[in-house]
Amino acid sequence: MKGYEKAVRPVFNSTQTITVNLGLTLTQIFDMDEKNQVLTVNVWLDQSWKDDKLQWNPEQYGGVKVIRIPCDFVWLPDIVLYNSVDDYSEPYMRSLAMLSHDGMIFWPPIVKFRSSCKVDITYFPFDDQICSMKMGSWAYDGLQVDVTNNSDSVDLSNYIDNGEWQLIHAKAVRNVKFYSCCPEPFPDVTFWFHLRRRTTYYTFNIIIPCAILSVLTLGGFLLPADSGEKVSLGLTVLLAFSVFMLLIAENMPATSEFVPLIGLYLTVIMAMTSASVVFSVFVLHIHHKGGRGNRAPLWLRRFTLKYLATYLCTQKELLKCVRHVLDKQDRDELERHVIREWEDVAAVVDRLLFWLFALLTLFSSLALLVFKPLAKEAIVGLDF
């Protein structure tokens, strides 16, 4: 290698273009940092090009056709990750380069890349993320160093599955860009990754507990008003939902561009829980109104005790009690009847609210946790 200068392009004609073939062997996805929007992967960056100044006749060297030499002894293309979040002070792994007798050099360093990835958390925890790694020469234009991909796919033969993210698809696309700084074209190879979050962890640790809490919210309408725990149960459930909201907010990027699906679901359920507390106070007010000695209005009695009680399958013992009181003009008995009348009205309203909130909970759960994620999968499949 006497007289070889590794600092300049290894060509005999300055107008000659060196073609660098890029390939990627993905071995592991280390992390997807949603908060900082950073994807960390471990890859083998396969690079191959022809060095016209490093050729020999195998017959003159004992039939040797391929040798392995330190990469620092030869010219290396300045291939960089354009959307890297790290500085470029540390070079690639200084692995050996394989040099063939015809001048072809193959250099596959192991690299840990940290690239920026715009995270869309709209459907969290049923989200898909599309991330890219844009690679190309930093200083040479396409007339000097032409960067191209040796395959339209990414080598996954050594890939180790990630516990949180499932790799759906990976591909390589060559692009040619023109920048404002220079009139020459700048080619690059962009590697695209379609990742889908595994939902098992979030299903058992967030979704199922939230569903159980929403059922407890309905239980507040089944508690007897005399138990004194109707409002306390609603406030406890509301506090539990607040804790879940804080846990989710800690892992989400601080952006107003996207609202996570699970956050929207918790907000809806929290609003319903807050409304259930207000309605519980209203029911308690009706329940204890009989102590004032005023009978319930006729329209209210007819609507709740005659119509609603029939459809809601509540007990209608009040009619028997009314006949007994009318036959027996006893003041104490009448007072007890008035109290019982308001209590029955409160019980019917309680049952009405139970079924109303049950339907709202079921509808919101199906809409946000089932139908919307299913619609998302069809859209993402068409886009990638």
From TrEMBL:
The keyword Amino-acid biosynthesis appears for this protein: no
A molecular-function term among this protein's GO annotations: acetylcholine-gated monoatomic cation-selective channel activity
Membrane topology: Multi-pass membrane protein
Species this protein is from: Capitella teleta (Polychaete worm)
Transmembrane segments: 202-225, 231-249, 261-286, 352-371
Family matches, as PROSITE patterns: NEUROTR_ION_CHANNEL
Keywords: Cell membrane, Disulfide bond, Glycoprotein, Ion channel, Ion transport, Ligand-gated ion channel, Membrane, Receptor, Synapse, Transmembrane, Transmembrane helix, Transport
Family: Belongs to the ligand-gated ion channel (TC 1.A.9) family. Acetylcholine receptor (TC 1.A.9.1) subfamily.
Subcellular localization: Synaptic cell membrane
Neurotransmitter-gated ion-channel transmembrane domain segment(s): 206-317
Name under which the protein is recorded: Neurotransmitter-gated ion-channel ligand-binding domain-containing protein
A GO term from the CC aspect: postsynaptic membrane
Keyword Membrane attributed: yes
Domain called Neurotransmitter-gated ion-channel ligand-binding: residue spans: 1-199
Main localization (coarse): membrane
InterPro entries reported for this sequence: Neur_chan_lig-bd (IPR006202), Neur_chan_lig-bd_sf (IPR036734), Neur_channel (IPR006201), Neuro-gated_channel_TM_sf (IPR036719), Neuro_actylchol_rec (IPR038050), Neurotrans-gated_channel_TM (IPR006029), Neurotransmitter_ion_chnl_CS (IPR018000), Nicotinic_acetylcholine_rcpt (IPR002394)
